[in-house]
Amino acid sequence: MYKLLIVDDESETRSSISNYFPWEDIGFEIVGQLENGRQALDFLSERQADVVLCDIHMPVLSGIDFAREIKDRKHPVMIVFFSGYREFEYAKQALSLGVKEYIVKPPKYKDLVSAFSSLKAELDEQAWRMAAPSDPLDEEPEQSYNGKIISIVKHFVEDNFPHASLEEAAKLVHMNANYLSQFFKKIRGAAFPIIFLR
């Protein structure tokens, strides 16, 4: 299940989009509902989200400025703009900032399904690409991305055994817990943390 953060200054909009759309059916769980981009940046500095569904016009920090901050910080979270504004200029800015989708309010059910099914497919592909067959346990951490993931989690397990949890390990490497587990199974055919106990 991927983590979704909802950011909109209208409480009614946040509530309706969170409660009346079957997010779990398409692979997402809502981890927060916030009022502006500044709150979203603070949230992401401490917690994980895979996708942010974000309004454009908000007080304190707008969606455009939020997206610009995310790009400058090279944060891996995906952004979807969600706004009642149809002007081409906003869509153009969104593209330049790497925003994945632009959904116009009020959203149609099929538009949300289409956009987030596409995002889930992209997230799935990223997860499997990182878990491509290799021998990361025999590599130095600097030699491959997979090696870095294995090294970080291995040290975490060694330092925290027997209380190390999959969820905590996933946070360290900014991955979804389910996919971190699949990552280990695909590489060595063993689930976390059994792979390190052999």
How would you describe this structure in keywords?
198 residues, Rossmann fold, Arc Repressor Mutant, subunit A, five-stranded parallel sheet, 5 strands, 48% helix, 14% strand
Model description:
This protein has helices spanning 11-19, 37-46, 63-73, 88-96, 109-130, 145-160, 166-172, 177-188, and strands spanning 2-7, 28-34, 51-54, 78-83, 101-104. It folds into two domains: 2-128, 3-Layer(aba) Sandwich (Rossmann fold), CATH 3.40.50.2300; 132-196, Arc Repressor Mutant, subunit A, CATH 1.10.10. It has a five-stranded parallel β-sheet. Helix content is 48%, strand content 14%. The protein has 198 residues and is an alpha/beta fold. The protein has eight helices and five strands; from the N terminus they run E-H-E-H-E-H-E-H-E-H-H-H-H. The longest helix is centred in the middle third of the chain and has 22 residues, at 109-130. Strand 3, helix 3 (63-73) and strand 4 form a beta-alpha-beta unit. Helix 2 packs parallel to helix 3 (63-73).
| Net shape | elongated
Please give the CATH class of the largest domain: Alpha Beta
How many H/I helices? Answer: 8
Major sheet: 5 strands, parallel
Blueprint (SSEs and pairs):
Layout: E1 2-7, H1 11-19, E2 28-34, H2 37-46, E3 51-54, H3 63-73, E4 78-83, H4 88-96, E5 101-104, H5 109-130, H6 145-160, H7 166-172, H8 177-188
Parallel strand pairs: 1-2, 1-3, 3-4, 4-5
In short:
The protein is 48% helix and 14% strand. It folds into two domains: 2-128, Response regulator (Rossmann fold, 3-Layer(aba) Sandwich), CATH 3.40.50; 132-196, Arc Repressor Mutant, subunit A (Orthogonal Bundle), CATH 1.10.10.
